[in-house]
Amino acid sequence: MDKTRKDNHGNNIADIAKDIADSKGKKHIDIDVKSNDEIGELAKAFEVMVNTLDESRKEIEDFANKLEIEVEKKTKELQEVNKNLQKLVEEKVNEVRDKDKVLVQQSKMAAMGEMIGAIAHQWRQPLNAIGTSIQNLKYDFLEGKLNDKEYIKEFIDKNKQTIKF
């Protein structure tokens, strides 16, 4: 109760109304006009309006306080979710990196396997050729070619060349 205005004259109701408007609802103004005429009724109406405004202001302040608490609560929840999301992203990134490492290792192993296969092929090819050449010696013997010095020299040179390759 910051200000009390007591008046029995109608021309001061305007001052009371001005005080109410100037306070912008931030302070309570008592209206104490004792009159049974229109001025008294106007003063009572002003008092009802001031009380209603005061109650509305308090309700708005309470609502603003509750809203602020709720916003703070939601902000904390959001920060927690953000923190957990960041952890989850880091975990998933690490998983992907680990999978990439495994894939690189598998790729290296596959390339090494292909290389070993190529080397084995390079070894088998001449060995197969020499093996076939040696198997044919039996038929060459039966045909009497083993007595021919030129044939033997050619046979040896061909197999040496295959071994060198």
Describe what this molecule looks like in 3D.
By secondary structure, the chain is mostly helical. Helix content is 81%, strand content 5%. The chain has helices at residues 13-23, 38-143, 149-164, and strands spanning 3-6, 29-32. Strands 1-2 form a two-stranded parallel ribbon. The protein is rod-shaped, with a radius of gyration of 54 Å.
- Total helices: the number is 3
pLDDT below 50 for ≥5 consecutive residues: which ranges?
1-11
Describe the global form: rod-shaped
Number of extended strands? 2
Percent helix range: over 70%
Order of helices and strands: EHEHH
Mean pLDDT: 82
- Quaternary class: single chain
Strand order of the largest sheet: 1-2
Distance between the termini: 114 Å
Largest sheet descriptor: 2 strands, parallel
- Structural class of the secondary elements? mainly alpha
Strand content: under 5%
Rg (C-alpha, Å): 54 Å
